[in-house]
Design a protein that fits this description.
The protein is about 40% helix and about 15% strand. By secondary structure, the chain is an alpha/beta fold. The chain has a single domain, classed as Rhodanese-like domain (Oxidized Rhodanese, domain 1). It has a 4-stranded parallel sheet, with helices on one face. It is globular.
Length: about 110
């Protein structure tokens, strides 16, 4: 599994790199908080509609123990997506670093 570190992901976002950042949790979790610029893809049908196999994709979920991004990584790579990386730390690691979040709970957690 090709992993990306928190600092490398932050650098890609800050540089405005062209890639798809995908949160693999439910719509409710996405609405609560997510990394800015993220798409919410919580099922294979959405993935087929919103992603192209040629896209550079970074997927994440809540934390290292969350299976959603592991499953999504496996699903995408076995279906011809060649440029997929997983941010294992997810929301928990991002928030622990004090990096910005968006969503209805993002302000509460920042304060």
């Amino acid at each position: 599994m090709d992993l990306i570190s928190r600092d490398e992901l932050k650098a890609k976002l800050d540089a405005g790199d062209d890639f798809k950042l995908v949160m693999t949790l439910s719509e409710w979790a996405f609405r609560a908080k997510h990394i800015p610029g993220s798409l919410n893809i919580d099922n294979p049908t959405k993935a087929a509609d919103l992603l192209n196999p040629a896209d550079e994709i970074v997927i994440y979920c809540s934390d290292e123990n969350c299976p959603a991004s592991k499953f999504a990584f496996q699903l995408l790579t076995t279906n011809g997506f060649e440029h997929v990386r997983r941010y294992a730390g997810g929301i928990a690691d991002w928030e622990a670093a004090g990096f910005p979040l968006e969503g209805e709970w993002a302000e509460e957690s920042a304060g």
